[in-house]
Known about the structure:
Layout: E1 3-7, H1 11-22, E2 26-30, E3 42-45, E4 48-51, H2 61-69, H3 74-77, E5 80-83, E6 87-90, E7 96-99, H4 103-114, H5 116-141, H6 155-163, H7 170-177, H8 181-186, H9 206-214, E8 217-220, H10 226-237, E9 241-243, E10 248-253, E11 259-264, E12 269-271, E13 274-277, H11 281-288, E14 309-318, E15 327-330, H12 336-345, E16 354-357, E17 371-380, H13 390-407, E18 413-420, H14 422-427, E19 460-462, H15 473-491
Parallel strand pairs: 1-2, 1-13, 2-9, 6-15, 13-19
Antiparallel strand pairs: 3-4, 5-8, 6-7, 10-11, 11-12, 14-17, 14-18, 15-16, 16-17
Helix pairs in contact: 1-2, 1-10, 1-15, 4-5, 5-6, 5-9
Amino acid sequence: MSHVVVLGAGLAGLAAACHLVGDGHRVTVVERESVPGGRAGQLHQDGFIFDTGPTVLTMPDLIDRPLRAAGSSLAERLDLQLLDPAYRGFFADGSQLEVRHGHEAMRAEIHRECGSVDAAAFDEFVAWLRKLYIAEMPNFIDRNFDRPTDLLARPRAAAQLFALGGFGRLGPMIRRRFQDERLHRLFSFQAMYAGLAPDDALSIYAVITYMDSIEGVFFPKGGMRAVPEALAGAAEDAGAQLRYGTSVAELLRDPSGRVRGVVTDDGERIAADAVVCTLDLPTAYKYLLPDVRPPRAVGGLLGGNYSPSAVVWHVGVRGVPEGKAHHNIHFGHEWSGAFQDLLKRGTLMGDPSRLVTVHSLDDEEAAPEGCSTLYVLEPVPNLEVGRIDWEREREPMRERLLGFLEESGYPTDVVTEQLVTPLDWQRQGMAAGTPFALAHTFPQTGPFRAPNVDRRVPGLVFAGSGTVPGVGVPMVLPSGRLAALRVREMVG
Length: 492
């Protein structure tokens, strides 16, 4: 039986472990923290529990797949609640729009708030999104590529993506379909998940809009932290060994350069037939492969375009917000200019849009009675683009966010808090101080993205947001499966 070591018990690593143990490998997962989750982590503080990573969960079948590979299932491991509305949008003119679950409910919302023309346009928009998803998911996202020309192996799918306008720009495509400017924002802000302004993002990333606006947004009982806990439990029950509180110092490599295992920080040598690494790719090359130059292929690592970063303020407050949903997006007056601040000028957004997630509305364990947890996110430049002194800017940012919460009707009697800036992301090993890795520009998308194998280092496979297929929960879960397929190619 071959032995595979997985570095990191985040979503990608745990998905890989589930698929690997299902394939009959002996699997050891090495995780530096004391709990599973990686970027989907948790913070326990003063009686509050904060989910510190992704807050939006879509496409639960992508969780079910690794669970089933390990002999379990989504129904067995997770209790999911559908959030309706998925988001509540607050606009600078005082109006609101909700992203409702289901075609008819969303169409009715648009008809009531935006008029009959945009409601009719929504019907065509949904049909287009479904066609895009069906063409894109199996052919462009959920598969390994050895070279860009592999796209030609499925000419019908590639031709369909082109015919659907998938390689046009998302922002203009949305504007052509809808008259109401609020819908332009509500159906294109998802480009930020891909690290781009809507006018720069490819239309193929409307697939993210499909995932949350059409298929629905869910919340697991026990919080987002329940997802990595479910994957870890399934992997362990299937025979995988999870070693928490263990860091890896180096890779074991034989004279030919092939990876043969890892060395932990305390000097223990763990032999393996293959290693799956879920560290941020630039960090992996810097610390584990110092003698290997990171690839400079199109969309490669050195000089690559990184996604914006974010300041996240975890706040435990006394009181429960009224008139707010689980996920709330507060749009500023400015739109395109704010992205210029963020992505080009490297400054804070002059008129920022912000996300406020109130997990405690649906997670009774998250806060003491009569209290709430607030997850406040503001996009900010990454450390490659921005020249912001975060040691100096930390407190002014906190004060601005506090003022924003008060103006927006949230309780602000703070009991406990933690503010996370790009410097904190960088200290956690995330290149350019961003948790969103390389941006999904065209030369960093699909077969052009940093690959999950480096032919110069046999025996090593990458998974996670820095490699294929990309950033976000619906991307990193398939990345674990794609890594397991690579291991199968290597060791059988």
